[in-house]
Amino acid sequence: MNPSQLAIASDFVKTGMEKAGVPLTENLEAYLSITFARFMGETIRVDLLTVRITEAMDARASRDMIRALADECLIACAFFEARLRRAGAIRHYVGLGQMTYDAADMTEQAYGFMPMRDVIASAAESSSDDSRILIDRARSGSSTARKELETQNVVVGPWGKDPKTGLLWR
Questions:
Q1: Which residue, of 13, 33, 125, 136, has the fewest CB within 10 Å?
Q2: For 164, which DSSP code?
Q3: Does the pTM of the predicted model rise above 0.85?
């Protein structure tokens, strides 16, 4: 990572914070900028993410390796959501990322996983019109998805846990 990559990443994160309307703490903003800069030009291994994290946990991998997997999960959730969705709900990967940061003793990143994901995803994409994706994001804890659904007069509540039987009020 060089200074220009870090500057680009920092601008990208600031743009995402503005677009998403999600303020990050100074620590999370700096961490997200550095993480994003580190992944520039790198290959993200989205496939078998759950298996790789589980194997690392079982093998009692180093804190640095666990953190790197959590970072990879964060970037995957932000940029490769559609690909992850083929294997299951995005909620699974959000929880997996939070748990992995927690295992690396990075509590602020664990609690800030969804806001960091929202910031990166907002900077990268325009807006999603697919209600099912917005609902899945909202159930994962995305404040930007909840705001978007509110503009469409859709409220997601605890009664909507199962998308096949849950109720959505319009």
A1: 125
A2: T
A3: no
More confident residue, 15 or 129: 15
State whether the Cα torsion 108-114-115-117 is positive or negative: positive
Contacts of 85 (CB under 8 A, 6+ apart): 133, 136
The rounded mean pLDDT for the chain is 85
Region label for 167, one of left (φ > 0), alpha (ψ between -120 and 50) or beta (otherwise): beta
Q: Which residue has the tokens 């970072």?
A: 71
Asked whether 24 and 115 are in contact (CB, 8 A), the reply is yes
By CB neighbour count within 10 A (0-12 exposed, 13-18 middle, 19+ buried), where does 75 fall? buried
Tokens of 84: 């992850």
Pairwise pLDDT comparison (129 vs 69), residue with the higher score = 69
Inform me whether the pLDDT recorded for 40 exceeds 50. Answer: yes
Pick left, alpha or beta for residue 105 (phi over 0 → left; psi -120 to 50 → alpha; otherwise beta): left
Residue ranges covered by each domain of the chain: 3-126, 128-170
| Section 78-96 average pLDDT | 86
